[in-house]
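batch job 7 of whatever, protein = Cullin-3B
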Amino acid sequence: MGTADIKAVFGKNQKHELNVSTFQMCVLMLFNNSDRLSYKEIEQATEIPASDLKRCLQSMACVKGKNVLRKEPMSKDIAEEDSFVVNERFTSKFYKVKIGTVAAQKETEPEKQETRQRVKEDRKPQIEAAIMRIMKSRRVLDHNNIITEVTKQLQSRFLANPTEIKKRIESLIERDFLERDSTDRKLYRYLA
């Protein structure tokens, strides 16, 4: 999604060039034909996803010095019952005004847990691939050296957890890619 420049005239014939996101431009263009729009009307006219639309409206109506729109009732959050008008009293000492977009809300705890779980799942094949590369070249290696080498090989991407490496080794043994030495349980052999 790019940005766009819009020329706008505010109260007292003050002219500004607004640098806005595509979503913000779509919303502002609606005010060429209407003095007042409800959140629902903006949502229906633009079909912008709700989370993006709320951030877009918040950045244009609730950020001091960038509030080219006025929100009624005035508050920091955007609600579905809100209505918006062009802020006739908007002023800036600059001709060109960049209207940024408010950052997305932080993840909730369940979302963080889900993200961590997905990352953990995504790392499993990477850990297994590193183990297999090492074992294919070495043929026989003890547990501590595998842990050290896998950690070293993956350090540019992420810090591999030794417990997870051990689980991946166990998984590879179960699937007959590796085997434990019959005399030394800490020694692993590559199976071709």
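notes: Strands lie at 3-10, 14-21, 36-38, 69-72, 83-86, 96-98, 140-142, 178-180, 187-190.
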